[in-house]
Specification:
- By secondary structure, the protein is an alpha/beta fold.
- It has one domain (3-149).
- Helix content is 26%, strand content 14%.
- The protein has a six-stranded parallel beta sheet, with no helix packed on it.
- β3, α6 and β4 form a beta-alpha-beta unit.
- α1 (3-10) crosses α4.
- The longest helix has 13 residues, at 58-70.
- The protein is globular, with a radius of gyration of 16 Å.
């Protein structure tokens, strides 16, 4: 599939300046769990960056909605594969989250079709992870279950996690121009938990 056609089907990829590769985002208002947490003071989602700033521009909102709608397109897997192929690193959902078990299965299929790409997906949708054995996840994908509250420890039911702390961090981005630079810990299955600073 040509990339032009793939972009038309999927809405295209995003290019976060922080990341070593492209990403794919969905509307934060469509987060099943995150949209509720955004109303809870002390939660990681309270004051969500994807609900303010440039994310509120009409053209950005329209693009996010196109991507959300595209998930049900019969050629979505093929189109996402065409866009991701050739990239070493990829992040799922720099805004937004898993929408359904069917959505997650499609993501698994894209990962299988792009074996040379390392995929990372943070999520707060515990309901979907609790239904599966981590061993079924494609080996080039890491799903990190994100704790809901600031200063909450990592969940214990999942092998790869992330947390947000008001006093410590293991993510170096804040000290290096808000950029990953040569750090790839988020994509690394040997790193059980990533601690992001509250900011």
């Amino acid at each position: 599939m040509l990339k032009k056609e793939a972009r038309k089907i999927t809405g295209g990829l995003s290019a976060p300046s922080k990341m070593p590769g492209p990403a794919y985002n969905l509307p934060a208002v469509a987060c099943i769990t995150g949209a509720k947490l955004a109303q809870v003071p002390g939660s990681v989602c309270h004051g969500c960056y994807a609900l303010k700033g440039r994310y509120r521009f009409p053209n950005v909102q329209q693009a996010l909605q196109r991507r959300a709608t595209s998930i049900k397109h019969p050629d979505w897997v093929k189109a996402m594969t065409a866009l991701i192929m050739g990239h070493k690193y990829f992040r799922w959902h720099d805004s937004g989250d898993i929408q359904s078990p069917e959505h997650l299965c499609k993501i698994f299929e894209v990962c299988k079709r792009t074996p040379s790409t390392k995929h990372w997906m943070p999520t707060r949708e515990a309901r979907f992870l609790k239904l599966m054995d981590p061993d079924i996840i494609p080996s080039n994908l890491i799903i990190r279950m994100s704790s809901h509250m600031i200063d909450q420890g990592p969940v214990t039911f999942w092998p790869w996690t992330s947390t947000v702390s008001s006093s410590t961090k293991t993510c170096p981005a804040l000290d290096q121009g808000n950029s990953c630079r040569d750090c790839r810990a988020c994509w690394d299955r040997s790193v059980p938990n990533i601690v992001y600073p509250k900011h």
